[in-house]
């Protein structure tokens, strides 16, 4: 039986080679130099390196992990589960746990942004969209996630809520970017005793 092979044009191969060379050049930056750069600059370099590596090896983006994978701090994740179980019933602990699991499964690479909208979270959790703000607010109070407002052009108001995972809890993507983010982010408030266990 014939095997299907993806054809690569000369232009594509050339682009992959250029991306590989650029990624290699960025990887030569010394730890000493990177240490003195602002966190945002280190994150930008890490994201650029990761994007170039993906462009250089487009057929290996999935690798052995279909859909990608998320790195977890086992101790802090377990502590978060315990803290959620200890919530009073009025705080909807089952839905908060479901939301936390969905957060871990839907992280944007190298930013920690949660890739589900409020409506998508509501549909997955099985609740009304208005309840998602309360549920995610509980995770935010625990320090598990943070919330930003993203302005939408032509729409009034504070903007759409966008959530990010605390990098001390989980991460999807470059370890260098995670370290830079974690250095500028406090561990979850209820879990500060586990700071040394962050992975």
From TrEMBL:
Highest taxon of the lineage: Bacteria
Family annotation (Pfam families): HTH_Crp_2
GO biological process: one example: regulation of DNA-templated transcription
Ranges where the HTH crp-type domain occurs: 104-153
GO molecular function, one term: DNA binding
InterPro entries, per database record: HTH_CRP, WH-like_DNA-bd_sf, WH_DNA-bd_sf
SUPFAM superfamilies assigned: Winged helix' DNA-binding domain (SSF46785)
Name of this chain's protein: HTH crp-type domain-containing protein
Organism: Acetobacter pasteurianus NBRC 3278
Organism ancestry: Bacteria, Pseudomonadati, Pseudomonadota, Alphaproteobacteria, Acetobacterales
């Amino acid at each position: 039986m014939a095997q299907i092979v993806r054809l690569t044009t000369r232009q594509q191969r050339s682009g992959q080679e250029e991306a590989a060379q650029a990624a290699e050049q960025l990887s030569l930056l010394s730890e000493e130099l990177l240490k003195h750069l602002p966190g945002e600059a280190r994150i930008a370099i890490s994201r650029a390196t990761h994007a170039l590596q993906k462009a250089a090896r487009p057929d290996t983006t999935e690798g052995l992990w279909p859909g990608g994978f998320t790195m977890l701090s086992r101790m802090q994740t377990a502590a978060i589960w315990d803290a959620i179980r200890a919530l009073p019933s009025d705080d909807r602990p089952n839905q908060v746990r479901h939301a936390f699991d969905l957060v871990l499964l839907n992280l944007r690479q190298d930013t920690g942004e949660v890739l589900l909208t409020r409506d998508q979270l509501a549909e997955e959790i099985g609740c009304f969209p208005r309840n998602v703000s309360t549920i995610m607010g509980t995770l935010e109070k625990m320090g598990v996630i943070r919330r930003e407002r993203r302005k939408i052009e032509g729409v009034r108001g504070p903007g759409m809520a966008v959530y990010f995972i605390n990098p001390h809890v989980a991460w999807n993507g470059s370890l260098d970017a995670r370290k830079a983010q974690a250095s500028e982010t406090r561990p979850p408030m209820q879990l500060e005793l586990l700071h040394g266990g962050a992975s």
